[in-house]
Design a protein that fits this description.
Blueprint lengths: L10 E10 L2 E11 L4 E5 L6 H8 L7 E6 L2 E2 L4 H6 L1 E4 L11 H11 L4 H14 L15 H12 L6 E5 L7 H16 L3 E6 L2 H7 L2 E6 L2 E6 L1 H8 L2 E7 L5 H11 L5 E3 L4 E6 L2 H14 L4 E7 L3 H9 L18
Parallel strand pairs: 3-8, 3-9, 6-7, 7-8
Antiparallel strand pairs: 1-2, 1-4, 4-5, 9-10, 11-13, 11-14, 12-13
Helix pairs in contact: 3-4, 8-11, 9-10
Length: 332
Amino acid sequence: MSILSSSGPAVRAEGLAKRFGATEALRGIDLEVEPGTICGLLGPNGAGKTTAVRILTTLLKPDRGHAVVAGFDVMKEPGEVRANIGLAGQYAAVDELLTGRANLEMVGRLYHMPGKQARLRADELLEQFELTDAANRIAKTYSGGMRRRLDLAASLVAAPPVLFLDEPTTGLDPRSRIGMWQQIRKLVGQGTTLLLTTQYLDEADQLADHIAVIDTGQVIAQGTADQLKAASGGGRIEVVIKDDRRLFEATVVVQTIARCEPDVDRRARRISAAVDDGSSAIAALVRMLDGDRIAVEEIALRRPTLDEVFLRLTGHGASDEGGSAEDWEEVA
């Protein structure tokens, strides 16, 4: 594995901006990723995540700003940056007419590895990503999850210290997603630094040591998942009443302390709503329900989810479309 050329952050971006015509894809992004950690860049489609990754991997020139990856300046030292990174894009970039083994050997040869070394590295990665049994099958016969694993393996042929994964689990079924998460954790456990873009809140919650929430080309919040949830404040009250005939009355009571319209599950007799001050809200709710003699089966306060954090920060869910241009490309 290559060694980072400095003891600072593995990735550092300062004021990155990019415009496509009248559209500002990035509007001054600041970001730091510490060595040996996972940074999750979280945001909806069109938020600017892929544009940021393209700049950091030298595929796109910023209009302004500065970025250093693996200790090298992305504008002044693009060759050194490329020699120290791996990139797996949103879609598996494998040659469907080659076998899995041939795909990996080809990447090794492109990195100027001797033939024997390329073959040994291919075999090592096929075993690591549980593709040995399919090594001699052509890639077009692979399932979506297998192709994504092969693509990730290809990005690791040169054992880069910094890896960029752009929405690596898009389109995968739940089992394949969990398998990909396991592989990602193994890589970081071996010392790889990883910047992961995703629109899946559970993915960021599960994997990321640090999360940067991006929307309309700007980082609007940063921190660990717990820090972001704590900063969002409040929480969510959930109450289950005993008599479904009192459901409407109980909903009216919950509405008086809620931050938004309560959600009601009639079959489960459950009412839930976001609140600003969880402790005060739950105490007030107990008093009011008791005063109205509405019997409660269960009442609880839980912390906000990342989805609720994102909604509060941006006014829309993380799966909603953003407004930035992500489809433009400009080779640096």
